[in-house]
């Protein structure tokens, strides 16, 4: 971690932390209830961070005022969906940088020493772990941490499981049901007979691993490169009483040792560089995970086994990848397509007509591609 410095009767400092990868603020000034929104916005746009020392609820109001000044979408019009997507992503990064200039301090016990501040200690401890305070974080990020704690506590109902999944902070939540439903509906290899081992690559919350176990797979090996995701998956399979059927391992090599009758992979759907670890559930740098899954599948399948690729066509509709490119990678990996199931989007963004990418999102199709080895 880096360190920020400011003057508050005397020189002070605190460690700086940003989950979203915001850069270290070079200039920090103290702000309180007297800070006007127009002044705060100008300072934030200039790169000056505002360390809040006033009332907590007033800080939230100031953050909302900054948000209104930044706006929700990038101004102007562009010709293609790809250009719109890139423009909106740049704008979201700009918005995050501006809002991320309003800072608060967490003490060594993960608490906030501000008037009318809520108790954030449990949420901050789960997100940040132990640290020697004080720790400076963006208020916008801390509010996200608190919101994520509420999601973790109440869970997300997954109809296909008839149970709740409890996402941890920084782990992609299964709020979109279509990809889970596809895995619930797809016919198991060999008609469901003798599916002894399945791999779930990039397991996240463990929702697909749990679903496979519920469908009768003997042993599911779930992998993920993220320590947070592995802890989350273990928590969820334990809550569901499936610890004996699901084993969670590191995903540093993507595939675990051995072979499987079924390999499931739901990689990030957008080939692009993630700005931080929080983006890893959405962006697959250079399509690396997708290519790693396809390139390694043939040598990891048992005879008669299948690989299930769960993938949206959003990247194709944005012009970031073509269907021909995808099929070329499948063919080059020595695989054939034996079936495909499709699902239309059910999430709220597909119905948001104010979204600059509404037409693309409304037309999006998520598919489960059933892949197998060539017929001998």
Automatic annotation (TrEMBL):
<dbReference type="InterPro" id="IPR007848">
    <property type="entry name" value="Small_mtfrase_dom"/>
</dbReference>
<dbReference type="Pfam" id="PF05175">
    <property type="entry name" value="MTS"/>
</dbReference>
<dbReference type="InterPro" id="IPR029063">
    <property type="entry name" value="SAM-dependent_MTases_sf"/>
</dbReference>
<dbReference type="GO" id="GO:0032259">
    <property type="term" value="P:methylation"/>
</dbReference>
<feature type="domain" description="Methyltransferase small">
    <location>
        <begin position="194"/>
        <end position="312"/>
    </location>
</feature>
<dbReference type="InterPro" id="IPR050320">
    <property type="entry name" value="N5-glutamine_MTase"/>
</dbReference>
<protein>
    <submittedName>
        <fullName>Class I SAM-dependent methyltransferase</fullName>
    </submittedName>
</protein>
<keyword id="KW-0808">Transferase</keyword>
<dbReference type="GO" id="GO:0008168">
    <property type="term" value="F:methyltransferase activity"/>
</dbReference>
<keyword id="KW-0489">Methyltransferase</keyword>
<dbReference type="InterPro" id="IPR002052">
    <property type="entry name" value="DNA_methylase_N6_adenine_CS"/>
</dbReference>
